[in-house]
């Protein structure tokens, strides 16, 4: 090891001369490479500077919906922690599903998941709403054969809902259909969920 500096110097000079890198042509990088080559020849490993630690993983924000995101429970959510699904009739459930309530900072509920609700009860209620809206969407697409716009307006949503009600009351006498539609419009989510489980209209 005592002779290593002299041998290293000679080796570096030889490498530089061999490459024609003497005089002003020698740069910091070529000198560094020559030293590394010489060290390698003598069985000495040149260690690279330690790499910077990878950047910590940053949680991705939920899908952009035009509404604010909320931080609670250590995660980003699309709904505030205290948000409750309102007690509303079927038509308003369908409307909130597609267009939300921008004035209240609520995105279209089709964009949220159970992750965005703070309790099991709220997640269960959301699951019922999702079942309702997916059942109505199935009727709109499969039975009514309508296309759903990528960006729905309130008029679009109400029109689809009317078409679904027409399909659900098809075959009834005029007055019976009017009464049935009125009942469906004012129906609570839990009641409609029970109906979708047994009514063949909602299945192939």
Question: What this model shows, in words?
Answer:
It is a single chain. By secondary structure, the chain is an all-alpha fold. Residues 21-26, 46-50 and 55-61 have low confidence and may be disordered. The longest helix has 24 residues, at 120-143. The chain has helices at residues 4-18, 28-41, 90-99, 120-143, 154-168, 174-186, 189-198; strands at residues 70-72, 75-77. Helix 3 (90-99) packs across helix 5 (154-168) and helix 4 crosses helix 7 (189-198).
Biggest sheet layout: 2 strands, antiparallel
Which range does the strand content fall in? under 5%
The N- to C-terminal Cα distance equals: 83 Å
Number of helices in the DSSP assignment: 7
What topology, given as strand order, has the largest sheet? Answer: 1-2
List low-confidence stretches.
21-26, 46-50, 55-61
SSE order: HHEEHHHHH
Overall mean pLDDT score?
79
In which range does the helix fraction lie?
A: 40-55%
Number of strands: 2
Shape by Cα distribution:
elongated
| Main structural class | mainly alpha
Radius of gyration from the alpha-carbon trace, in angstroms = 34 Å
């Amino acid at each position: 090891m005592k002779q290593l500096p002299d041998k290293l110097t000679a080796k570096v000079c030889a490498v530089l001369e061999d490459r024609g890198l003497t005089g002003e042509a020698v740069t910091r990088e070529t000198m560094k490479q020559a030293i590394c080559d010489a060290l390698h020849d003598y069985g000495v490993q040149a260690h690279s500077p330690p790499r910077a630690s990878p950047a910590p993983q940053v949680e991705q924000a939920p899908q952009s919906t035009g509404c604010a995101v909320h931080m609670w429970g250590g995660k980003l959510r699309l709904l505030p922690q205290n948000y409750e699904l309102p007690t509303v009739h079927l038509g308003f459930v369908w409307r909130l599903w597609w267009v939300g309530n921008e004035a209240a900072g609520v995105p279209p509920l089709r964009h949220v998941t159970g992750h965005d609700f703070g309790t099991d009860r709220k997640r269960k209620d959301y699951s019922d709403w999702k079942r309702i809206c997916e059942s109505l969407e199935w009727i709109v697409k499969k039975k009514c054969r309508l296309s759903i716009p990528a960006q729905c307006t309130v008029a679009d949503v109400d029109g689809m809902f009317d078409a679904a009600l027409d399909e659900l009351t098809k075959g009834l006498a005029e007055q019976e259909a009017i009464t049935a539609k009125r009942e469906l419009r004012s129906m609570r989510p839990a009641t409609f969920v029970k109906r979708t489980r047994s009514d063949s209209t909602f299945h192939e």
